[in-house]
Design brief:
six-stranded mixed barrel, alpha+beta, 30% strand, Barwin-like endoglucanases
């Protein structure tokens, strides 16, 4: 966050959106990334959870393992969630319902049963590869 942004947040002119302002920028053997705390949920291609094309992502690809939905990260952005999935890489290819803010991410599962087994929403640190 720039000094100007920090000042504007501090004096209340703007409000930061959780998940968009990196909490840490790290350099190790991976490509450069930033971290953010986000609320993680799961979804499937069941008709009651999607639009009229349940197996097609908002990006126009087929739903499959590794698809992630978020309303603010660009399509194609690579993301890791080490706390739950280790080194697995997800790709942003879908969107959530517009009522959800930028700080929510959704992992796709092949069935509603598997998505429900994942459980309720939880806050996790994600790695965003820009």
């Amino acid at each position: 966050m720039s000094c100007v942004s920090l000042i504007l947040v501090t004096i209340g002119i703007i409000t930061p959106i959780r998940g968009l302002i990196p909490s840490t920028v790290v350099a190790d053997d991976r490509p450069s990334y930033r971290t953010a705390e986000m609320i993680l949920t799961a979804y499937s291609s069941s008709p009651d959870e999607t639009d009229e094309t349940p197996h097609v992502t908002a990006y126009g690809t087929e739903t499959r393992d590794g698809v992630l939905a978020n309303n603010c990260l660009s399509f194609g952005t690579k993301v890791q969630i080490p706390e739950l999935f280790g080194d697995k890489v997800f790709t942003v290819e879908d969107r959530k319902n517009s009522r959800y803010s930028c700080s929510w991410v959704d992992v796709w599962y092949p069935s509603k049963t598997e998505a429900k087994k994942f459980g309720i929403a939880r806050e996790v640190e994600i790695l965003i590869f820009d």
